[in-house]
Amino acid sequence: MGLFTKKIGPVFLKEESEASNYIEKLKKLSEEASDDIKKKIDEQIKVASYGVYGEQNIAFELKNSGMDMYILHDIFLAAGELTAQIDYIVITRKRTYIIECKNLIGDIEIDNKGNFIRTYEVNGKKKKEGIYSPITQNERHLNVLKTIRKESKGNSLTKMLFENNFENNYKSIVVLANPKTICNDKYAKKEVKDKVIRADQLIKYIKNMDAASNLGDSPEKHMYELANFYLDASLPNKSDYSRKYEEMLELASNKVEKTSVDQAAINELRNDELIAILKKFRLETSREEKIKPFYVFNDAQMNELIEKRPRTKEELLSVSGFGPVKVEKYGEQLIKLLSLV
């Protein structure tokens, strides 16, 4: 870091997660459910809470890193039919780190072919099973992110430069967040070992990677703009919502009395769908016009659009930030989009 570089420390631009919201909804449903459904919901709460606990361990390490970094938690990206749910995007002055959190019960062995084998105990008996490689999973996430960022580049030259420098600028990390997990990577290849670490090693790993980099320090402005690019590109994770509302349908089919919680959830689902639609429109429009997404409309204006649901250009003028020029430019499209849900 340069002598006169301003210190910003670790900054979370997005700290909440869809999983936490999902758990809160399930807890409300559990209070209303009968015995069998309640048991299923409570099991889901337990599973989801375990994952959240692991991600909180990583958040603690990042918050106490003392490093200049922008952090995004629980980012859902889509490129065509490909999607990626990324646990953490961490942007330092040197690189961008894509972190996959694994809070697994039991111990992990990685063999010389890169296979992941988990050993855990059930009713006093040890059970061993293969699991899907979190390295492969995170590499797929990285490819979705790469596609989205590359598409935002203005011309073929900048796209080529981005492609050529991508592996140096972006790094994939799998973090084992359960402090009790033992990872045996004795026979794993070096390129595999280098991508799997424990949560308590995370900051040391990032510092060492940054120190070994031959890249110059990025200005805080560039770090902030990059973080906001991925924040603007993030969409609500539809898969999480479908699971949540399947549980609600189970409650209804079990003849549990419908409450205001159900209606609130329906309204929230509609709003989430609109957020996804409006964010997609904002991102595509900003790319076409080669401007920042928030110039089209920012998040506060988006929320006001959803709240007011204007049906005419005259009504759209009442939304903050929408004057005659912007209404004339985007009005018809926005009114159509807001009427979809």
Pick out its properties.
single chain, 341 residues, alpha/beta, DNA polymerase, domain 1, 2 domains, 6-stranded mixed β-sheet, 4-stranded mixed β-sheet, 13 helices, 10 strands, 54% helix
Overall body shape: globular
Helix and strand string, N-terminal first? EHHEEEEEEHHEEHEHHHHHHHH
Range of helix content = 40-55%
* Uncertain spans: 240-245, 254-262
The fraction of residues in strands falls at 15-25%
Q: Cα distance, first to last residue?
A: 49 Å
Mean pLDDT: 84
- Total domain count: 2
Q: Biggest sheet: strands side by side, in what order?
A: 1-2-3-4-8-10
Radius of gyration: 22 Å
**Structural class designation:** alpha/beta
Major pleated sheet:
6 strands, mixed
Number of continuous helical runs: 13
State the total count of DSSP E strands: 10
